[in-house]
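Long-time lurker. I teach an intro course on protein structure, and each term I like to show students one example going from raw sequence to a predicted 3D structure in token notation. This year I'd like something fresh instead of my usual example. Would anyone be willing to generate the tokens for the chain below so I can use it in lecture? Attribution to the forum is fine with me.
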Amino acid sequence: MTPEILLSLLAATVQAGTPILYATLGEILTEKGGVINLGVEGMMLVGALAAFLTALYTQSPVLAFAVGGLAGAAMAALHGVVCLWFLGSQIVSGLALTIFGTGLADFFGTAYNGIQAPGFNKFSLTVLSDLPVLGPIFFRQDALVYVSYVLPVSLWLFLRYTRWGLAIRTVGESPAAARAAGLRVQFWRWAALLGGGVLIGMGGAYLSLAYTHLWTNGLTAGRGWIAVSLVIFAFWRPGRAMLGAYLFGGVMAFQLRLQAMGTVLPSSILLMLPYTLTIIALSMSSWRGNQSKAPAALGRPLEPCE
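-- Reply from a regular --
Happy to contribute to a lecture. Here you go:
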């Protein structure tokens, strides 16, 4: 493999990992508030379709990206109605949300299969793009990739050093203690759920606005499930989520390059690679046991008094 091909593969790794990173950070924020959301796949699809249609009819990629985030929040609100309002099962609701989102996107998106829409194109960041090795990989990308570079640090600072972040972490660790401290547990769980939904929707929007510039049914191709597993792999830490997203993105980019090169390996084997890595990553994460830093009240339904 020549240096040029290797740099191209690494640049593709960053791009392929970006939608996973957005979705993973959204799921981390949601779970820090104590809510499990397994509907990431469906939410990403709805966000991708909403962003695509907005870009197609308004010709504004920036507005489309925002609409994709709002669509993700709307899907998260459905999850919240079931889990936070009616105190239903978070697992069942999340699975239903994925099925609902997939069907909704397929129903309204079928007529647009293969149609292109305006989106975000790559551009170089001044002097940074000329840096040896790092420049071609990290600084010749699109605007949404550049935004993703600051998101993990921003989320870490938010959760660790702001009153809002501390409130979200507290209701995720101990709703009873949060209530004793005067916090509105339901309010902060809703805030974490909707904020996470925005990021998840933006992850889907990236796929249709920057990664492909078109719509096709099943555009996420399992990335939502990878994001859910990556939260565990990252131990609920935004910084580790970035590394994990690029790891999974690298596997996806490598798989596509192998297919383009006409490898003799069956295509079904290549398609298995990202999900095989997911199983391996989850198996390795299980070794950490109680050191995984999962929120103590994660997935626990609130009592009516809370």
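Some talking points for your students: The radius of gyration is 19 Å. The chain has one domain: 3-292.
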